[in-house]
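Two quick folds needed for the group meeting slides. Do the first one here.
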Amino acid sequence: MNNKYTFCLLAFCLMCVCCSCTKIDYDKQNLIQNSLAIENQITEGDYCYQVQNDTVKIIRFLGDEEEVIIPGTLNNMQVKVIGENAFYQRKEMKKLVLPESITAIEDNAFYRCSSLENVFLPKNIQKIGENPFFRCSALEHISVDSESRDFKDIDGVLFSADQTVLLVYPEGMRNDNYTIPDTVKIIMNSAFGYFPSYLQSLVIRGNVEKMPDGDLFAYPNDRLTLLVESDSEAKRFAEKHGIMFKEI
């Protein structure tokens, strides 16, 4: 009996030691990873950034100014990317100036910048992620440099250069009615943001072949009616998501 008890006690102690070592190794690994992550981040003024291939990716903006002019270089390296959620909830920011060096704006980069009124996109931007200006409720107009090869604005709305993809309809745009151009074949996810404040009717004709994977906007409102053609993707989308619509 004593031998059996002693054996069980030894086995239990050995198991505890192994588990403890495993936990120590796991915690040590996490500590190393966290340390590396911190080491890879640099703070200069109002900008926290990472260096990628001798260029800068802004990962967090720390300022609270109404007018933000993003520099073209930090630490003598070109600023190329605005990272995901980099300007999250900078509610004080009304005006934003992007440098010509920018080539990419990632998902939700300016999420909840609720005072931002206008945006000008420079010519070198090649990539824009999903929902870059989501919940920018004061945003009325997006402009694109006329020399851009990848994007185009039409009356303040952002499209791909060939106008086949609608990327962003500003949430604060003061239109009661809007008709999606006949060139558009794809409407990106949440292209109309959280909800376009002033919009009451939206015309989507049969030229649109692909509607968003989820909602057209995050918060449907009974004020808005979709005007759609029969046997169209837009009509099927409205029926599926319970959005008020009329046939045209």
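Then this one, please, same format:
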Amino acid sequence: MSTLEGRDGTALLVVDVQRDVMAASVGSEAVIERIGGLVDRARESGTPVVWVQHSDEGLVRDSEGWQYVPELVPGEEEPLVHKVYGDSFEGTDLEQVLGERGVGRLVVAGAQTDMCIRSTIHGAFARGYDVTLVGDAHTTEDLREWGDLPAPELVINHLNEMWRGQRAPGRTAAVVPAAEVAF
């Protein structure tokens, strides 16, 4: 039901599940396992899997920490989008990649909840996509040492609750657990 005409397909968007990002995030092992299950199910159903990989001064491109976690390996035919902004669409070819595949609905998982996941789901929704956030397959690090910020579990819960209430004409937003994702 997206507002993108002629784009009825779905894609799994795996955002920034990189070694250093996941090493600093809470519940990473379980999140990686759930994402791995989503990737397997997407592949089995013929649903495109699109990988996003972030780089910046703290996550230097081609460094060991910049690499995807070893448990998740992009397929040779699966697109890998490199980004330098939180929103996976900004300054990338993600829109083109999705358009070529007829995608109008995104299922989103990865890291970090309060940065790149939040920016990407809002960016997708504003661009006309239906967006399903996998509520138990995104994570973030504990940033409380930087100020009066909530615990990471509360950040994750907050995004899930906020996204459940997201509304706009001609688009849908949803939050579902990994086990209930339908491709």
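Slide caption for protein two: The mean pLDDT is 96.
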